[in-house]
Amino acid sequence: MADLDPVIHAQARLRITAALATREPGESIAFPRLQELLDMTAGNLSTHLRKLEDAGYIDVEKSHKGRTPVTYLSLSKTGRRAFEDYMETLRSVLGTTS
């Protein structure tokens, strides 16, 4: 289990990366939509997104829709690779293959 990426291994961050990994590379999702999908508070989601951003695992794009600020999130190339490695390691630990 020591080989599992500690940035991703936290339950909330694993849920976030898994949700973002279901999207095509470069495809983003708005913060409120991700919050709704994961049923997380804005503060909790923000805290975990910051850790993923600091690790270079997600890309954050801030823009405006009219006068309203909007944050879009996507899994970076590094993040996608880290998630794939995490899943491969997890399968190995569990003794399963895909």
TrEMBL record:
Q: Which Gene3D superfamilies match?
A: Winged helix-like DNA-binding domain superfamily/Winged helix DNA-binding domain (1.10.10.10)
Pfam families of this UniProt entry?
Answer: HTH_34 (PF13601)
Highest taxon listed in the record's lineage? Bacteria
Residues in Winged helix DNA-binding domain copies: 13-93
InterPro entries named in the record: ArsR-like_HTH, WH-like_DNA-bd_sf, WH_DNA-bd_dom, WH_DNA-bd_sf
Q: What is this protein called?
A: ArsR family transcriptional regulator
Which species is listed as the source?
Orlajensenia leifsoniae
